[in-house]
Amino acid sequence: MLLSPVEFFRNLPKKECPKCGQVMEEQAESYIMECEGCLAKKVE
After folding, report:
1. Over its length of 44 residues, how does the chain's per-residue pLDDT go in tens digits?
2. Any residues with CB less than 8 A from the CB of 20 and at least 6 apart, and which?
3. What's this model's pTM, rounded to 2 decimal places?
4. Which of 14, 22, 34, 43 has its CA 20 to 30 A from that of 1?
């Protein structure tokens, strides 16, 4: 049985930072893979 698209997206796991594991809030046009804290450490 196929899931409806709404159910499919509802069942996806939360987006997590691959470096520290912090759950990130997803944004419609955001392709950032790391949280702001890990990104800030790269800039320093």
Report:
1. 788 999 998 998 999 999 999 999 877 777 888 988 998 987 76
2. 35, 37, 38
3. 0.62
4. 14
| Three-state secondary structure of 1-44 | CCCCHHHHHHCCCCCECCCCCCECCCCCCCCCCCCHHHHHHHHC
**Which of 44, 13, 28, 14 is closest to 36 using CA atoms?**
44
Structure-block tokens of residue 30 = 């955001």
CA distance 1 to 42: 45
